[in-house]
Design a protein that fits this description.
This protein folds into two domains: 125 residues, Rossmann fold; 140 residues, LpxI C-terminal catalytic domain (Cytidine Deaminase, domain 2). Helix content is 36%, strand content 19%. It is built from ten helices and 13 strands. Helix 4 runs antiparallel to helix 5 and helix 8 packs parallel to helix 9. The chain is elongated and about 60 Å long. It starts with 6 loop residues before the first strand and ends with a strand.
């Protein structure tokens, strides 16, 4: 990958694709965004872009090749479509069996399968660490107070638990208080998991405050396709859950809209801490 090579970004939901595009441009790279209809934000139109559905392979492959793009990234959540709902164009129809195979299996498998399809078309898949490493969490205190000894013990405990769960493709997050597991993230996602913890507190089945939400990539996870991400919504959910703070794996967790995220953590007096994975 050349630093000056143009970069294509497939944009799912949220601000992250836009942040990554700006970071790549700041590093001297031209960017071209493929906005996935129904997912991507309208703000992508500030960049050279094309709107397309996932099934319109002929449209976006042609646009990428017209611009000489080889390096390609996927960013932002993308709802997995049913094959029957893809509305394939001719370019996708020619690749229909491979696309159908790519849409089966767990989330990691789907992402990797789609990535392989693009590699077979001659593209080089890249991840945020390759072109925008400044978006990743640093090690140590990021915002708020330093975690106390109890919180540090919970972080270490949760990190070991997430490493153990990695082979099962369960999730990337866990809530721990006094080395007791309160919740494990599964298919429902981070916000819903933290909402369960908030419900436990409100129903008084979980007494007092405290605990840490810990997020880390699965061991062996391919950072080109999926990285754990925290943002303002994560902080809001953690506050409602009565937690003391958030800990994330340094160098492998994205901080969405970092300046606003840090300011929000300070307002809520929640710590945000980057631990060595």
């Amino acid at each position: 990958m050349s630093e000056a090579a143009p970069l294509g970004i497939f944009c799912g939901a949220g601000a992250l694709p836009l942040e990554a595009a700006r970071a790549a441009e700041a590093n001297g790279r031209k960017v071209f965004l493929v906005g996935l209809a129904g997912s991507a934000e309208r703000e992508i139109e500030a960049f050279d872009h094309v709107w397309a559905r996932l099934g319109e392979a002929g449209k976006y492959l042609g646009a990428l090749r017209e611009r000489g793009i080889v390096d390609l990234a996927f960013l932002g959540p993308i709802a997995r479509p049913e094959f029957a709902d893809l509305k394939l164009d001719w370019g996708a129809i020619k690749r229909a069996p491979a696309i159908a195979r790519a849409l089966t299996g767990g989330d990691d498998l789907v992402l990797r399968s789609i990535g392989r399809l693009f590699e077979e078309e001659g593209f080089h898949m890249v991840g945020v660490p390759d072109f925008a490493p400044t978006l990743l969490a640093p090690e140590g205190r990021i915002a708020g107070p330093e975690p106390d000894a109890e919180a540090r013990a919970d972080i270490a405990f949760a990190a070991r638990l997430l490493t153990t769960l990695s082979p099962f493709d369960v999730g990337q997050g866990v809530v721990v208080a006094r080395e007791r597991v309160l919740a494990v993230e599964a298919a429902e996602g981070t916000d819903a998991m933290l909402a369960r913890v908030a419900d436990l507190r409100q129903s008084r089945r979980l007494k007092g405050k405290g605990g840490v939400f810990v997020k880390a990539a699965k061991r062996g996870q391919d950072f080109r396709y999926d990285l754990p991400t925290v943002g303002a919504r994560t902080l809001e959910a953690a506050e409602r859950a009565g937690l003391a703070g958030i800990a994330v794996a340094a160098g492998e967790t994205l901080l969405a809209e970092r300046a606003a995220f840090v300011a929000a953590a300070e307002r809520r007096a929640l710590f945000v801490y980057g631990f060595a994975p």
